[in-house]
Amino acid sequence: MGYGPIIVRLGCRFVVWLFVLLQIGVAAGGAPEGYARYWPHIRLMFPEATAVGATEGTPASAAVLGPDGVLGYVLLTDDVLRIPAYSGKPIDSLVGFDIQGVIRGVRIVAHKEPILMVGVSEGDLARYTRQYHGLRVGDDIRVGGPAGSGRDVIDGISGATITVMVINRVVTEAVRRVAAARGLLVGNGNEQHVVSTEPLWTKLWLDRVWDLVILGLGLATLLLILMVQDWLAGNPTLLQRLRTAYLVYTLLFIGVYGMAQLSVINVFTFLNALLRDFRWEGFLLDPMIFLLWGFVAFTVLLWGRGVYCGWLCPFGALQELLFRVGRRLGLPEWEPPAVVHERLWAIKYVLLLGLFGLSLQSLGAVEQAVEIEPFKTVFALRLMREWPYVAYAVTLLAVGLLVRKCYCRYLCPLGAALTFPGRFRIFDWLRRRKECGRPCQICARECEVRAIRPTGEIIENECHYCLDCQVSYWDAYKCPPLVEQRRKAQRRTRISGDSSV
Description:
Layout: H1 4-30, H2 39-45, E1 51-52, E2 62-66, E3 69-76, H3 77-80, E4 92-98, E5 103-110, H4 114-117, H5 122-130, E6 140-143, E7 151-154, H6 161-181, H7 200-207, H8 209-227, H9 229-233, H10 236-257, H11 264-275, H12 280-284, H13 287-303, H14 306-312, H15 314-328, H16 338-344, H17 346-361, H18 363-366, H19 375-380, H20 387-402, H21 406-410, H22 413-422, H23 442-446, H24 468-473, H25 480-500
């Protein structure tokens, strides 16, 4: 047979075994252990450092060593305190402080936060974390608000208020715990604050108590409107004014001021938490979002998707108000043909299914794709971000000047998601007559989102609950059956009057 093939086989086996041994070597000793893997960041915090010690103590930390001994300590917040952020996962930060109890630096090393993945740059994060440099571990460090005795105030990041408050709480609590364990909170001016045990969400709710009162009053008002919708439909001028005022409230208070625009990512976060490690703390961090979702869950089961999409969605309110402005300016209104219109409905469901598929892999995988929603660009970041996102949002709003609520009707994955629980709604509050669609087409023509078929049925999954059809339902001068009844009553009155004469 010859020695050639044998040599080849032996050579191949040698190469394979060499590769395996190299991989084992890399796995065993190629990656630094403990805090050594963060050495470049530690050197930036402690330029005079020569080495970092082993991880030790409870809570865990490592000593930073210099020519004359211990310079300070570094810690990973995940090793000390795990507070779930808005994604339901904690944000892990590397923090260093010296033996005088002065923070030398903070570096975010791992997170799953949507706003930090998309919409907040590395520069924004660096500017935020630099503010901790020079502060003392025992000081009361707050994000925003007035400064006071013993209180240090740092600036947040636009559109990431909840996230930076979580970061601040985790960083300040973690360094205090480690400093206390190392004996650095006694006798050096750092002892004025020991560690808080109050959940972060309780502070956030107390801080926004007046915002919650205003939101609660707004939701109670909407609930009253829905309960007396038949009476309001009989008073169209009052209903129109109420609806316009409520849309302005939704846009300015809920959207612009409160930045409480709901998102389909909230749905995926909730489902992900149900399947893995569900805890209420993560959802309680944004009180306005939490209260809104509670109200939406309630109204979806009673009235369907339309209450949120037609009354409480800030981006929907912005589109509707801009469309009305367009009519005042004399801009033309365009509607796709009926067949095309119904086919376009499918787009938002396809987008929802695609996003859901990505979310099954991980929430991180869906963060970029969820930018199909322009909400973050418009409300959280106030159009202050990269131009493609701004161009996309402005284009949608521009199209909405001509096609009423175009995004809501055809593209919104959140609206599509709300249709599924809406299928279990308990009551049918929208009144119809047997003549609707046979032959009357008045409501079908007037529906602002064309959610009424030519045959007269209201398509509940596409209805935005504007109540225009209910106004026509009770209008004795517009609804054909009522018109006929009114005319008959008038004829009987005339005949009765003639007979008396």
